Amino acid sequence: MKNYFILLIVIAAISSCVPARKYQELETKQKECAEELEDLTSKVTGLESQNNELQGLIPDLQESVTRLKGDTTLLGKSLRMKEQQYDKINDLNKRIQEQLEALQKGSALENAKLMNDLNATKLQLQLKEDELKKLEAELNAKKIALDKLSVELAAREKRVNELEDLIAKKDAAVNELKDKVAKALTGFKDKGLTVEQKNGKVYVSMEAKLLFPSGSTAINKDGKTALVELAKVLQDQQDLEVLVEGHTDSDAMKSSSHPKDNWELSVLRATSVVKLMLENSNMDNTKVTAAGRSEFIPLDPNDKAKNRRIEIILIPNLDELFDIISN
User: Fold this and answer.
1) Domain presence at residue 213
2) Cβ 206 vs Cβ 226: under 8 Å
């Protein structure tokens, strides 16, 4: 306002000493200044109003600043705590990284060891597999051999069964023959004659007293009867070998004529029996044999009477058995 009054005084002074045209210009200027002054005054008023408003806001702003400072302090503390935690996390992460690297290194060593063990196991497995293949080949070879043996065994079993059947038949036939012979010679049972079956053969044993006088090779009446009965039984036996053996005691003979010794006596007595049986039956000559045993196969060293004997051994024909065995 003070500036405004000064301006008016200046204008009045100028107007008292300038022409009218100048005055008008000054008046125009004055109006413009007045208008400008009014505008400025209005603006000043607005600014003062704004200033008052701003002054009213200062406490709130100061309070906000105070709060912001407090928040900043808290944030600073929080930031420092976070930084400390971050440092701890970094340290922890570093240790974890170191441990991980150590684990990876150890894992690499362990993996290498495991790989070596695996390779060793593979090698052992390959060896076992090769051994298994070898064993399998051997097993197959053995199986082939076993199959072959099984076939051979079956064939042998068949032959054994055939042999057993044939032996059973032979045994039955020999037993039947023994019964026939025993029945035919029943009357001579208590006269030094025995009939027994052993080793698949029939043994007819006749003491010398039943057949011959002492030291003689001529057969007596009872002996002839017994031998003829026996020959009649044997003439119907087709598959039979007949062996007649003469046996003596151990007493030495003292004779200048035949028989001179026990060898001759045993042979001649066996020959006499064979001739008598052949002359009184239809026996096959080719299946009868006479043999002398002298004193060397005694029945009882303490019983000379038992040792002086004729043994007629009836031997079944085993050709069929031998054929089965040899095939």
Assistant:
1) yes
2) yes
